Amino acid sequence: MVEKIFIGRRKTSVARLVMKPGTGKITINGREFEKYFTQEVHRSDILNPLTLTGENGKYDMQANINGGGLTGQSQALRLAIARALVAEMPEARTQIKPHGMLTRDPRMVERKKYGRPKARKRFQFSKR
User: What's the mean pLDDT in 65-80?
Assistant: First the structure.
């Protein structure tokens, strides 16, 4: 496998992933996987593409993640892992794609409009 950087995005989070054959060690921003993502929901979400293809524990991964919260970061990393797996073995696409893991979630926070406290919220109406 040629060392290549795979990118995943979600909301304002950006995950850059380098994946190479190894023992299954995952490092995120210089920290251990379990220390960075403490909630089991996020960890299982990230490892989902690997478990679907049966490649769990076969690759070492190093990721840099910036922006957003933990959920956005975990989903950005999941997209990067799914893209890396498809690049490594194209037959994995048929297993990953039906679960929606190759789709970049386009939803972003709507901008705040002037004359309002938030994007759609309005100030309280007063008749008198």
Answer: 95
Q: What is the mean pLDDT of residues 96-101?
A: 93
What CATH architecture applies to the domain 5-99?
2-Layer Sandwich (3.30)
Question: Encoding tokens for residue 95?
Answer: 């297993």
Q: Compute the distance between CA of residue 21 and CA of residue 59 in angstroms, rounded to an integer.
A: 4
Q: What is the 3-state secondary structure (H, E, C) of 4-50?
A: CEEEEEECCEEEEEEEEECCCCEEECCEEHHHHCCCHHHHHHHHHHH
Asked if residue 86 lies in contact with residue 125, where contact means CB atoms within 8 angstroms, the answer is no
**Amino acid, res. 78:** R
- For the chain, give every domain's residue range: 5-99
What is the model's pTM? 0.90
63 three-state secondary structure: strand
Distance in angstroms (rounded) separating the CA atoms of residues 105 and 100: 9
